[in-house]
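Hi all, long-time lurker, first post. I run a small reading group and we've been trying to get comfortable going from sequence to structure in the token notation. Rather than ask abstract questions, I figured I'd post a concrete chain and ask someone more experienced to write out its structure so we can walk through it together at our next meeting. Sequence below, copied exactly:
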Amino acid sequence: MLDFISLKSEFYKENKIEGLIFSYGFKNGKAENKYAIPFTGSYQTYGGFQLPISMNPLEFGKLANKIESEYKTIYIVHNDKGQTITVIEFKDYNEIKISKLGNTLLTFKDIKSDSGFIRIIDNKKFYFENSDQVLFTKDIKTKFIFKIIKSKNLINNFITIDIETYMVDGLLTPY
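-- Answer (accepted) --
Happy to help. Here is the structure in token form:
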């Protein structure tokens, strides 16, 4: 059996550490987070996420990688919460996926419109103009409305009335 230690050259022999020097200093106040992403725009809070109200992929965090092709550009961005945001930018819309440690946390789509953009998350649509939310809609699935069965004992005896009124001293008065 070979003795690997004896095969080491003289250059790589271990030496004893004779000293170790630490340099340090003190500052007043809280240390600045060097990984913080400076964003001065507005945020949308959704499900515990702070989503920038913007279609610019670089406003989601710090750019890690950019892959360009003929029809799309893929941005891989990291935010200060340790999350990876993948933004696939097409001509008229962006597809965004937020993940952490390989687990998808949130996916949504931003669609360009004439005066802003529409953010679609699940069955909800958020309409933004000039960094302000101007409309919110939610698609709700309902049961189909069935035709009711006609009553066999229909009675045609009913009365209707229509009274016109006008305002007199702040009170509605019949005409």
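A couple of things your group might point at:
Residues 37-139 form one domain.
The chain has no helices and twelve strands.
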